[in-house]
Amino acid sequence: MLYAGCHLSNSAGNLAMVETAVSIGANTFAFFTRNPRGSQAKKEDPVDSAKAVQALKDHHFGPLVAHGAYTMNLCTAEESAREFAASVLCDDLRRMAALPGNYYNFHPGSHVGQGTEAGIEHIVKALKKALEPGYPVTVLLETMAGKGSEIGGRFEELKAIIDGVGSPDIGVCLDSCHVHDGGYDIVNDLDGVLAEFDRVIGLDKLKALHLNDSKNPFGSHKDRHELLGQGNLGQNTFKNIVNHPVLKNLPMILETPNDLPGYAREIQFLRDLQN
Ligand code: FE
Ligand code: FE
Ligand code: ZN
Questions:
Q1: How far is Cα 207 from Cα 252, in angstroms, rounded to an integer?
Q2: Is 37 assigned a catalytic role?
Q3: Is 122 a catalytic site residue?
Q4: Is the pLDDT of residue 38 over 80?
Q5: What is the CA radius of gyration of the chain?
Q6: Sign of the dihedral defined by the CA atoms of residues 252, 255, 258, 261, in that order
Q7: For tag attachment on the chain, is the N or C end more exposed, with fewer CB atoms within 10 Å?
């Protein structure tokens, strides 16, 4: 089953997102758990969430892939800021329990000059504190382009976090633009990149995909998304992805520069690429 969707606004609540997703032919979606560039979260609405859970079931949705705020940097240099980020993570995970069985993805963080090792230590510490056994949501680390001091540009870094946390409730969301910009050649050697992922992390940890084309060349470490088929990844890369036995059943989230009608077209574009 192809589970395709895009990033949606949660301003009207959870049920409204499901309805919007259905209206554009999506059967998964992503949303920010709070203001992406601030830390403000919406008031919780258990009735709305219960209705959303039922609607997801009625429409046979695949797992959702929520996204943590960009400002949540678990490995920032200043201790009080780091503790604040860790408390945001805890609060997000607690809120996500209203949508059990889904994913919560976030950017591991930027070490801002402290070094990769110190950054990973901070991230591990925050995740260990936030993840409780039996928690109904799986946390996903996003593969990053390796821009600036970003952690997660190399599979080894994600593996170090996963091993450090030592919880079964942690996986990876692979962003096609990010891995391409980060120097993993999914255009010419998707199988090779997946073999490398398997060798370093293990494919059982790969839970979701962000599908974006890239405005920048291979290995540029830039991270600028482009419409599917119109950047350096090209249509054929997405054809390979939607038909790949390892990838074709994972939730696929579009984060392309688009509006709702455009997302509806891109979701259909993905379905048309299926063999
Ligand atoms: Fe992201
Ligand atoms: Fe992404
Ligand atoms: Zn990106």
A1: 10
A2: yes
A3: no
A4: no
A5: 18
A6: positive
A7: C
Q: What's the 141 CA to ligand 1 centre distance in angstroms?
A: 9
Token pair belonging to 162: 């996963």
Structure tokens that stand for 169 in this block: 């409730």
Is 199 one of the annotated active-site residues of the chain?
no
Dihedral of the CA atoms 198, 201, 203, 207 (nearest 10)? -150
Q: What percent of the chain has pLDDT over 70?
A: 100
Tell me which fold the domain 3-272 belongs to.
Answer: TIM Barrel (3.20.20)
Share of the chain above pLDDT 90, in %: 95
Chain length of the chain: 275
User: Ligand 1 center to residue 6 CA distance, Å?
Assistant: 12
pTM score, whole prediction: 0.97
Going by their DSSP bridges, the two strands 109-110 and 150-151 should be labelled as antiparallel
225 is catalytic: yes
pLDDT in tens, 228-246: 999 999 999 999 999 999 9
Three-state DSSP at 254 gives strand
User: What span, in angstroms and rounded, lies between the C-alpha atoms of 76 and 107?
Assistant: 12
**How many other CB atoms are there within 10 angstroms of residue 78's CB atom?**
10
- Per DSSP bridges, beta strands 206-211 and 225-226 are unpaired
SS3 of the chain: helix, strand, coil, percent, to 5: 40, 15, 45
Q: Of 175, 181, 213, 266, which one is the catalytic site residue? A: 175
Q: Which residues surround ligand 2, an ion (CB under 5 A)?
A: 175, 210
> pLDDT, tens digit, for every residue of 122-161?
999 999 999 988 889 999 999 999 999 999 999 999 999 9
Q: Domain limits of the chain?
A: 3-272
